Amino acid sequence: QGTGRGTGPDSGGAKVAETFTVAVTENRHREVGLAFLSMSSPTITLSQFKDTARYSCLTTYLESYAASEIILPDTLENGGLHTLLLKSKHDFVTFIKRSHFSDNKGR
């Protein structure tokens, strides 16, 4: 995993011109699911973890990838995660219908 904004997951900390679209979802148990889609290569990185109330793990992930856009389900609009993203440098958040985040269909 990269070590700073603008680094990719396998760049060893070297600055690369790689950006990602990131889809984020969360369940009621504060388990966060992430999908990082590289805009410069055909790769996707998936991650799932239980996070803290301050989303410290998520914040670390987002700082490690240069996200050009963050996609959230519309059910998280105006929630704690959305508020965190607005307070940080991530003001490029797009909301889509929750039905596009299907656990059973892998979407």
TrEMBL record:
Source taxon at top rank: Eukaryota
Segments forming a coiled coil: none
GO terms for biological process, alphabetical: mismatch repair
Matching Gene3D superfamilies: MutS, connector domain (3.30.420.110)
Annotated Pfam families: MutS_II
Domain DNA mismatch repair protein MutS connector: 21-80
A GO molecular function held by the record: ATP binding
InterPro entries registered for this protein in UniProt: DNA_mmatch_repair_MutS_con_dom (IPR007860), MutS_con_dom_sf (IPR036678)
Name of the protein: DNA mismatch repair protein MutS connector domain-containing protein
Species: Hemiselmis andersenii (Cryptophyte alga)
